[in-house]
């Protein structure tokens, strides 16, 4: 009986990571399918970089090839558009792609105008949005929101490092 329990436990422990990976892959495929309904640029031709900061974070989207001017233009237009939407409390884009239960989203949607500043900036190969707030609950929500996007976008996203941004290939 003890051998059976041991074998069953070991089998479950080895199977768990594979079932989590399969669920992640399924989730990422769904996000990739819904992405073009909100984001005009190619997920495969771009990288999302999420950098958490003490007062919020930086969301950067860059073309994998800085010479891909079409993707760069599409990224810049999209980030300008979502900056304006988010400042109005409209998070329908991320909600459509990632779902209504996306971590951090409800708190961000409930923020009062001006509680989170969102600054747009052109960067080489794309653009970035800098989110800043003095409210600790909103910082936590932004970090959870970034983590959810990192997970959902899989290979098309990466965590950045505070105080500097990674250099993308072909830049």
Question: Please, could you describe this protein's structure?
Answer:
By secondary structure, this protein is α+β, with helices and mostly antiparallel strands. 49% of the residues lie in helices and 19% in strands. It contains 5 helices and 5 strands, in the order H-E-E-H-H-H-E-E-H-E. Strands 3-4-2-1-5 form a 5-stranded mixed β-sheet, with helices on one face. Strand 3 (117-123) and strand 4 form a beta hairpin. The radius of gyration is 18 Å and the shape is globular. Mean pLDDT is 79; it is low at 12-23 and 163-171.
Low-confidence stretches: 12-23, 163-171
Class of secondary structure makeup: alpha+beta
Helix fraction, binned, reads 40-55%
Beta-strand proportion: 15-25%
Radius of gyration using CA atoms only = 18 Å
Major sheet: size, sense and barrel closure? 5 strands, mixed
Query: What coarse outline follows from CA principal-axis ratios?
Result: globular
Which oligomeric form is depicted? single chain
Key descriptive features of the protein:
alpha+beta; 5-stranded mixed β-sheet; 5 helices; 49% helix; disordered C terminus
């Amino acid at each position: 009986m003890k051998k059976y329990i041991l074998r069953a436990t070991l089998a479950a422990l080895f199977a768990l990571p594979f079932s989590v990976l399969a669920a992640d892959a399924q989730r990422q495929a769904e996000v990739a399918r819904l992405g073009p309904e909100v984001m005009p640029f190619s997920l495969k031709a771009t990288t999302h970089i999420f950098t958490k900061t003490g007062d919020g974070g930086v969301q950067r989207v860059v073309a994998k090839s800085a010479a891909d001017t079409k993707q760069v233009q599409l990224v810049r237009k999209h980030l300008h558009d979502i900056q304006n939407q988010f400042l109005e409390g409209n998070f329908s884009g991320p909600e459509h792609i990632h779902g209504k239960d996306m971590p951090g989203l409800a708190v961000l949607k409930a923020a009062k105008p001006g509680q989170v500043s969102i600054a747009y900036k052109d960067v080489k190969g794309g653009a970035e949005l800098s989110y800043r707030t003095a409210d600790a609950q909103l910082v936590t929500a932004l970090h959870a929101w970034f983590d959810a996007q990192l997970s959902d976008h899989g290979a098309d996203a990466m965590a950045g490092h505070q105080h500097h941004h990674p250099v993308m290939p072909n830049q």
